[in-house]
Recover the amino acids of this structure.
């Protein structure tokens, strides 16, 4: 079994005709685009509106949140949230360039000005907030474990240290890669890749025994696994997802928070047609935003 990109590429070869027949639409709703937007000169919003295009960082390998589709455009809740924000600055989805941003490079692409924002299952925390600013949170996830369906040995993080031969996979630069260490027998138990679909593939072919990251990301892989994977134990962290932007851009942060608050219906619909389609997920309420700093 191979996940996501490989699977999508193989499927794409056979699906070109039927996609063409329905106009290449990915089935997603068009997000509202505000016309004749006006922003105070000098703000990021004014600059983006004037430019008429945006570059947005997201994941390309996470079903339900950011997964590259057959048309080479990512789909998922993060993508839809980013489209709501873009739309409020008059930017339509065809004017968005999507840039794959694995966990480890998120701060860097913001600092380098390669993207206007990052929406990528991006936990707000103090260490990251030294380098960038966060709008939101717009969702709160929690770390959990995923194992093969026939694994009855691991039923939560407390079982990992007792089974030092069982390898635990996660992603470099992620909060789960830090949080899991206290539960491991030693660092040799940890396997790190750059993206989560490599962990899911490694679990599928038995190279690792456990994958750990946020529950909603794991649920996406479970639903794609056709019964091969399951989640075990309770979530053992809180992961509030923020929109990463340039450090100190308070006006942009406030604009993003206001935009989400004003578009709660679009937010809920975005969830329901993406992550909400995955078994085991629950429609969230938009959380109260944290103060912009
Ligand atoms: N939310 C966690 C983080 O930001 C895990 C998911 C991810 O790596 O994107 O590190």
């Amino acid at each position: 079994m191979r996940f996501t990109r490989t699977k999508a590429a193989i499927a794409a070869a056979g699906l070109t005709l039927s996609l063409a027949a329905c106009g290449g639409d990915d089935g997603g709703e068009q997000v509202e685009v505000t016309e004749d937007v006006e922003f105070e000169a000098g703000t990021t919003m004014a600059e983006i509106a004037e430019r008429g295009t945006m570059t947005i960082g997201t994941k390309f390998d996470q079903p339900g949140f950011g997964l590259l589709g057959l048309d080479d455009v990512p789909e998922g809740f993060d993508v839809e949230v980013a489209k709501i924000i873009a739309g409020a600055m008059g930017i339509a989805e065809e004017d968005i360039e999507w840039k794959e941003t694995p966990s480890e490079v998120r701060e860097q692409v913001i600092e380098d000005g390669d993207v206007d924002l990052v929406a990528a299952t991006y936990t707000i925390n103090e260490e990251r907030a030294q380098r960038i600013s966060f709008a939101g949170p717009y969702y709160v996830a929690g770390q959990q474990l995923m194992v093969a369906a026939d694994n009855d040995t691991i039923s939560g993080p407390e079982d990992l240290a007792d089974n030092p031969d069982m390898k635990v996979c996660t992603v470099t630069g992620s909060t789960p890669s830090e949080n899991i260490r206290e539960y491991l027998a030693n660092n040799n138990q940890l396997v790190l890749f750059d993206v989560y679909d490599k962990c899911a593939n490694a679990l599928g072919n038995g190279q690792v025994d456990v994958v750990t990251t946020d529950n909603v990301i794991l649920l996406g892989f479970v639903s794609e696994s056709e019964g091969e994977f399951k989640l075990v134990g309770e979530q053992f962290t809180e992961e509030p997802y923020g929109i990463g932007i340039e450090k100190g851009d308070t006006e942009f942060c406030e604009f993003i928070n206001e935009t989400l608050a004003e578009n709660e219906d679009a937010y809920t619909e975005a969830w329901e047609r993406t992550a909400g389609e995955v078994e085991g997920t629950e429609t969230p309420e938009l959380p109260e935003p944290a103060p912009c700093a």
